[in-house]
Amino acid sequence: MANGPVFTIAGRARGRAFTILAVAACVLLVVWFWSRGTRFIAANGPTFDEGVHLAAGYSYWATGSFRLNNEDPPFPKLLWALPCVLGKSPPYPHAVAQTSGNNHWHIANALLYESDVPVRSLLDPARRVNLALGCVLVSLVGWVAYRVWASKLAGVAGYAFAVCDPTLLAMSCVLSSDIAVSLFVFLTCYLTWEYAAKPSRGLLFAVGVSLGLALGAKFSATAIVVGLGLAGMVFVWRGGTLALPGNEARGMRPALGLALRLSVIGVVTLATTYAFINFPLWATGLKFQLTRASHSDGVMYLRGEVSPRGWFHYFIVAIGLKMPLGLLLAASVNTLSRLAVRAAEPRRSLSVFLVIPPLVFFALASYSRVNIGVRAVLPCVPFLYLLAAGLASFGAYRLLKAVWLVLCLGWCAFTEHNTTTHEIAYFNELVGGPVGGAKYLADSNLDWGQGLPALKQWIDANAVDVLYLGYFGTDRPEAHGIRFRPLPGYGRVGVPGGEAIPRTASRHVVAVSVNLVLGLYLGDNSQAYAWLRSRPPTAVIGGCIYVFDLTGDPEAIARIRSLPEQ
To answer: Comparing C-alpha atoms, which of 322, 361, 372 is closest to residue 170?
Structure first.
């Protein structure tokens, strides 16, 4: 009895020490994520749509009109453009907008490459805004893991699994709305989970605002509305209560009252992202996305096949090849162990809000068959981190789970270390990296036009004066100091560039984007590079550009010279 208070004090001291260590570990993980992100930003050129997204956001601030690039909601674009508005502000190209019929590709080209402000001075600060959103998402994953699994160690594991995912890092460092929608979808589901456990006016408002921001980030967030509605019905059917704060009534009627209130808050928040007067454009953009197949190039790639309609199983393959195996194994083991034990856990009935919405999102994305990359189902991935982090809550099979957790996290960290600066092209060990991955997936999974800075480094290191270049993307090779003769490509905006290479040149080096080697986006020239597919590349640049040294091969040189210029 006399030792009781001593043991209590010692226990509290140990608890505080562990809390301090856990917080320090989480901070270090976020710092590591940020530092890797800054290296990625410096090493990679603009991806295909980044210029358009930045130009659109800048146009919203500069003109007050939200019509440019309205096939995507404005909220992330407004955030990305803030450094341009508050810092080095190039003049908005009104003349180009007028002469091009407000064509966002030409406006973006003028803003990035024809203004007095260097392109990287515009792009990099905007990218860092998105990287900050990625850091917030990482922190949210850790916090939710701590809350759901009631374990500080699980919280740290949530941080670790998130920061070690190359795809999450890549999407955090480019101007794509996938990180923003993933953040607010995950936040909405988590806040709903908290609200169902203990309703309050503050949580009610937070859920509505988060839902509105998700819808203002990307139109695919409409799927989460369906998922939350279905989860709510299952929760009420299983005996739970969903109602406005202070209302203890059970059944669907109070749940419908709650849904109505959330809808009002969400719509007002969404309208705010459009500055209210532009809010009708949200419906226009949604209609465009729902009829996307009729507007697209009809180019979708899976396992060596090209399809104009896509595949229902595409995202299953993409998740299996683009997510770290350590993450997939940790999530699988935790799921199987909990299904096997079936132990009573606190808040088990609330799990529907963290399980059903991502499953519905994934199912609807698969049904849509917009197979442009694993990023389309990125909002489902934070729930994988959460599931994997559950290993750290131990319970049954404690020692086995601890060992497995260490192995999986170590595997994830090793994988990320070997992928630094080329995370867009990451593929896990099942296919052996980017070169093997190209046999299964392409487009934004691999080649998004990001590789010109790395190509310039290779050119300088190998003393190549001028090369033949088939490029997929909207970046400009000449902006990086690359001398080239253009080959058939896709994405070039504005005046053609390039120069001739004499037949008597001492070196004949060809660089071709992977998407083009695979025959994508080339239309009638889809077989232009087919003969290169059986030829081993001299180098693979950033996982997304194949380099072939044809010097001393007259037949190959003749074939490459016979190709039309872009």
So the answer is: 322
* Lowest model confidence (mean pLDDT) among 236-250, 351-365, 524-538: 236-250
Among the ranges given (198-207, 323-332, 408-417, 531-540), the one the predictor scored with the smallest mean pLDDT: 408-417
550 contact partners, CB below 8 Å, separation of at least 6: 508, 509, 510, 556, 557, 560
With helix as H, strand as E and coil as C, how does 198-263 read? CCCHHHHHHHHHHHHHHHCCCHHHHHHHHHHHHHHHHHHHCCCCCCCCCCCCCCHHHHHHHHHHHH
Q: pLDDT value at position 1? A: 46
- Residue 63 clears pLDDT 90, i.e. is over it: yes
Give Cα separations from 265 to 69, 120, 182, 188, 271 (angstroms).
26, 38, 20, 13, 10
Q: Amino acid identity of 243?
A: A
Count of alpha carbons within 13 Å of 12, Cβ hemisphere only? 5
The distance of Cα 501 from the centroid of its chain, to the nearest Å, equals 39
Amino acid at 124: D
* 173, amino acid identity: C
Q: Which residue has the higher pLDDT, 435 or 190?
A: 190
How far is residue 312's CA from residue 314's CA, in Å, rounded to a whole number? 6
φ, ψ dihedrals at 210, nearest 5°: -60, -40
Pair of tokens at residue 349: 């009935």
Return the minimum-mean-pLDDT range out of 212-226, 248-262, 374-388: 248-262
Instruction: Name residue, tokens 């994830």.
Output: 412
pLDDT at 39 over 90: yes
Closest CA to 390 of 452, 341, 322: 341
Collapsing DSSP states into helix, strand and coil, what is residue 481?
Answer: coil
Would you give the end-to-end CA distance of the chain in angstroms?
Answer: 86
Tokens of 373: 């990359």
* Sign of the Cα pseudo-torsion (475, 476, 480, 483, in order): positive
The predicted pLDDT at position 312 comes to 96
Residue 15: which pLDDT band, with cuts at 50, 70 and 90? confident
Confidence of residue 309 (pLDDT cuts 50, 70, 90): confident
Report the residue count for the chain.
566
φ, ψ (nearest 5 deg) of residue 22: -65, -45
What's the chain's average pLDDT? 91
Rounded Cα gap, residues 326 and 1, in angstroms: 47
Give yes or no for a contact between 365 and 315, defined as CB atoms under 8 angstroms apart: yes
Coil, strand, or helix at residue 540? strand
Q: Using CA atoms, how far apart are residues 118 and 120, in angstroms rounded to an integer?
A: 6
* Residue 249 falls in which region: left (phi positive, over 0), alpha (psi -120 to 50) or beta: beta
Phi, psi of 470 (to 5 degrees): -110, 110
Exposed/middle/buried for residue 418 (C-beta within 10 Å: 0-12, 13-18, 19+): exposed
The radius of gyration of the chain's CA atoms, rounded to the nearest angstrom, is 25
